[in-house]
Amino acid sequence: MILSAEVECILYDGHSLKEKRSVLKPMVTRLRQRYNISIAELDHHDVWQRTKLGIAVVANEQVHAEQVMQRVLAEIDENTELERTITNIEFV
């Protein structure tokens, strides 16, 4: 079972690509290590106030994949330096 999500976020306080990376890189690394997921920036690479993340969870049960994805999204929401705006989730 593969569950994927495309998550768009806005970074309000970023004023450069360097500041954007200083917010995204630690968050992505922490999520990858904590939840054993695949996560990468998919779009808006050269825009310093927006990002689009791709997240994939592989599990043997649908319920487990959904639980992991909900925990990941909750942790993204807890980050005060960005706001999650549009999220598309689907089973592949």
From TrEMBL:
Superkingdom of this protein's organism: Bacteria
Residue ranges of the TM segments: none
Gene3D superfamilies per the UniProt record, alphabetical: TT1725-like
UniProt-listed InterPro entries: DUF503 (IPR007546), TT1725-like_sf (IPR036746)
Name the UniProt record assigns to this protein: DUF503 domain-containing protein
Signal sequence, renumbered to the chain: none
